[in-house]
Each structure stands twice: as structure tokens, then as C-alpha cells.
Design brief:
184 residues; mainly alpha; 3-stranded antiparallel beta sheet
Amino acid sequence: MNRSKMEPTSYIKYDQNGLVHAYSGRENETPQFIWTCSTFEYFMHEAVTPSMLHFMQDHVVTNLSEGDMWAIQEGTYTRGHREAAAVDAYFATSLQERIDMHVEELVSIQEALRLARVKEADALNALLDENRPWDNTSSIDAEYTDFMRALLKRTEKRIGDLENELHEENNWFGGYERDAEFMM
């Protein structure tokens, strides 16, 4: 393929959970690559917290080259030097900056968890509310109930995911990272 006058159609997109997905640019496609904790743990040989993941993902995304975008489009992109450089960049950041990132992430996760719990309570209250403008024989009652149950299920999963993220982020303060054992 002669690329000299073409630009790649691949693109990067964040999902609802904050993971970065790389797409080739075709319609109705699945991601060609997803940057997850394990992508970076491969280079770190230790656990990656949510704040570390976000830093490293952002570092990779801002440093992707046109060649990387072509590799994503062609489905040949693999983890490598960009991800290793993101790990190095994280550890090149001062300990105080890393502490600040972790504190900000904790606040963000706690707020997201609070909002998810409010959403769960609201959805449950709406599902149990007997003062609907229709009765249970209405043609929309079953569909409404199914919709609300699916919303509750998604919200419960989100709450579980956020609780796990909070636990993972809190582990950082236990000294589970290079240099962090000397803080506090």
C-alpha cells in the first residue's frame, strides 16, 4: 500500500470505564488494541493502580506516531516501546506528583462510587414504585421492568468495579510501588 499521500483512519477512544481502545477505522469493529493494567504490568513486574494506568495510557496516546496508527489500522500493533516508555515516564515523575495523582484518583473513584450508589438506589426505588402512570397489565410494564432490572445489574457491576479500583488505589498507600515505601 502506498501511504505517501494517505493518512491512517485508525483512532483512539476511551470507554466508559476509562480504558483506552484503538480502532482501525472500519465500521462496526472491535478494538484492535486495548491498554489495560496487564499491558503495563508486563513491563513493571508489579501491580498497576488505576491512577498509574491513566497516567501510562495518556502517555502512550500522546506519543503514538503515524506509524503506530498505521499498525493499529492494519491490526499489527503490539505492546512494546511505547508502553515501556510510559512506565519509565511514570517513574521519572517525582514521588510528590505520583502521590498527588493517587490522591486525585482516590477522590475521583470515591465520587464515582457515591454517584453509582445513588443511581442504584434511585433505580431500585423507581422499580419498586407503585405510583406509576400505568398498572401492571400495561403493555409497557414488562419492558419497563426489564429495562430497570438491566440498569440495576449494570449499576451493581459498576459499583463492584469501583470498589475494586478503590481497593487497588488504596494499596498504593501501603507502599506497593517503587519508592513509595519511604513515604509518610
